[in-house]
Amino acid sequence: MRPTLPHLLLAVLVGVLAGTALAAPLAYVPNEKSASVSVIDTATDQRLVNIPVGQRPRGIAAGDGRLYLTDGKTGSVLIVDTVAGKQIAAVRVGDSPEGISLSPDGKLLAVAVEDDNSIVLLAAPKGRELARIKVQGKNPEHAVFSPDGRWLYASAEEAEQVDVVDVAARKQVASIPVGKRPRGIGFLPDGSRAYVASEMTGKVYVIDVAERRAVAEITAGQYPAGIAVHPDGKRVFVSNGRDPSVMAIDVASNTVVATIEVGKRPWNMAITPDGSKLYVANGRSGTVSVIDTASYQRRLDIEVGELPWGVSIR
């Protein structure tokens, strides 16, 4: 019997992904409008394949052999087998889920659900719901684990604070004032500081995690959105949606040391494990910009799908 197109596509996906499993890390890019995930080989910066998934994939987290994506249209978390190159499950979490993150030990997923202003905790890898935690901010966008897994920091579209969730207690325990409409969040590797991009104030807020207060404000560009922390803990990158650019912040001095032009409407980002390259999803350009983190030079733009939301590297 002649193989059908879906079978041929699956065979290509399996061959490509299995062949790169032991090579450089792969970058995964959810494309909202294309309903797909683009897979990029970070060694060659070539787009390998586009995996069809869901109807409106947005947030993304990558684990061992799995991708976890929020689907804004179906209100679900989509689970993708990266070796087979296909979606294997969909778990309903509530209307309009946005950001998703995986705990440092790989056992928990945290999903920001806009509809009921909650952070939903799921057990990885199957996505069984463990808790639904109400937060103060309306329309939560990101929920990010601290490096020790004890805390979740949640941002929201209608907020002027970051909400702090005690993971073990399954409840919000504090709020830390920042600028209006906080977006991306990133922790230093040692967990001592968190960095929050506040879109409407054009600033990045530096939070002392132990003291639960902002200790510095760094002026960014217009509409800062995404945050990515370098593995060495010495630099933090912020994307500016309206400029469009990415800025590098020196952690020791809390100053901007470089500004790099990228594609239109840069959004969420990720850095390779060795810290050498930063990948930036450009929503309105349909591209991912690749930045050399040592020279602060944009190497190239990689075409992906329509409305790329972010990047996860594994």
Short description, anyone?
By secondary structure, the protein is mainly beta. 5% of the residues lie in helices and 56% in strands. It has two domains: 163 residues, Methylamine Dehydrogenase, Chain H; 135 residues, YVTN repeat-like/Quinoprotein amine dehydrogenase (Methylamine Dehydrogenase, Chain H).
Low-confidence stretches: 1-12, 18-22
The ordered string of helix (H) and strand (E) elements is HEEEEEEEEEEEEEEEEEEEEEEEEEEEE
Please identify the structural class as seen in this structure: mainly beta
Overall spatial form: globular
Number of DSSP strands? 28
SS element count, helices: 1
How would a crystallographer describe the biggest sheet?
A: 4 strands, antiparallel
Helix share of residues?
A: under 10%
In the residues, how many domains can be counted? 2
* Residue-averaged pLDDT: 93
> Distance between the terminal alpha carbons, to the nearest Å?
37 Å
CATH-defined architecture of the largest domain: 7 Propeller
What name does the CATH topology of the largest domain carry? Methylamine Dehydrogenase, Chain H
Strand content: over 45%
| Rg calculated over all Cα atoms | 18 Å
CATH superfamily of the largest domain: YVTN repeat-like/Quinoprotein amine dehydrogenase
- Biggest sheet: strand arrangement: 3-2-1-28
Name the CATH class of the largest domain. Mainly Beta
